[in-house]
Amino acid sequence: MPTIRLKNVVKNYGGDTNAVENLDLTINDGDFMCLLGPSGCGKTTTVRMIAGLENITAGSIQIGDRMVDEPNAQTYVTPEQRDVGMVFQNYALWPHLSVADNVDYGLKLRKMSKTDRDARVGEITGKLSIAKYRDRYPSQLSGGQQQRVALARMLAVNPKLMLLDEPLSNLDSRLRLEMRAELKRIHAEFDATVVFVTHDQWEAMTLATHVAVMFEGVLQQVGSPMDIYDRPVNRFVASFLGVPPMNFVEMGEKSPQAASAAEFLAGRVEDIEGIGSIGIRPEALTVERPNPVRSSGQFVLAGRVESLMPTGGSWTVETAVGSQRVYATALQLGDLQPGDRIELVAPAASVHVFDLNDQRVRVRQ
Ligand SMILES: Nc1ncnc2c1ncn2[C@@H]1O[C@H](COP(=O)(O)OP(=O)(O)OP(=O)(O)O)[C@@H](O)[C@H]1O
């Protein structure tokens, strides 16, 4: 199974800014690596460079023992020779081949016997619930069905390295969930290495063994989903993950919440002047009745309930803290009403602290 190594990879499409900037990323054997970030951050470019569909401008990419792209050494291996399975947003199915023949395509190239091929096509189209369309052509299928055919075509040949660019984007939510579970199972069963592009944080968190968060062409952080969520290295990563997003208190503002934050930080950080903001996730906050006696192990913001928004299994409580909106997630509301004066309480360990450059600061508990 291949390990993929990107070293100092730069991609420039000809403009002033690089689409990908000095990217160092190792994707180990058996990883399910999600490239996550907002639109235009360079995810698709990265996966296309691994596939060989884009040349890199500088740096190097190695797959297993083989250098596949290194402009300085004039090395470039074509996509066909890289031996990777790919599914991209635009499917690229053969329009003149039926569903079954599309899925069979890679098996034929591998010179399997007709009996084995038929069995494999039957098995994989069954698994992806497209067996009933086996004689249709791609133009006679919905976007979601085409996406499943593209996945089936890739999976049929048991690739050890799979590159997937938003492969589930056209599926409805139920099918998406099913396909995620299927991908997770396939990843485990086939011991494959997967690179998966998504802008959907939930998808990344549920699927990945590792997540690489990108922003404006620059890799921000790589780690396990919980690492990224619990210990974001900077404010961008902190605010990109989580729904509702993390609440921030700006230290530079002359506000009661900044005063509470300064009180909380005293003795916990070396240089309070160097702190730009603190962040608390909505689910780390509990909504409580005002209580003058609080432990020093808690961070407290006083506010008023603005609105109570049901989200199915829980509630989002919108509160006004000074002139700021702060959101808390509550499993139960009790007798809470809009207009109530409340305190938002977080355990000290759940408070994230960022410096003036938005980088994470270690805090003494
Ligand atoms: N063929 C191209 N020519 C010129 N610029 C390009 C090309 N492809 C991508 N870009 C630019 O490179 C940057 C990164 O694009 P990329 O498609 O990799 O982002 P992305 O994170 O995958 O976005 P999305 O989620 O919207 O697909 C963007 O600014 C984009 O406009």
Automatic annotation (TrEMBL):
It comes from the Bacteria. Residues 4-241 form the ABC transporter domain. It comes from Arthrobacter gallicola. This is ABC transporter ATP-binding protein. Pfam families: ABC_tran, TOBE_2. SMART domains: AAA (SM00382). The lineage of its organism: Bacteria, Bacillati, Actinomycetota, Actinomycetes, Micrococcales. Keywords: ATP-binding, Cell membrane, Membrane, Nucleotide-binding, Translocase, Transport. The keyword Nucleotide-binding applies. GO terms for molecular function: ATP binding.
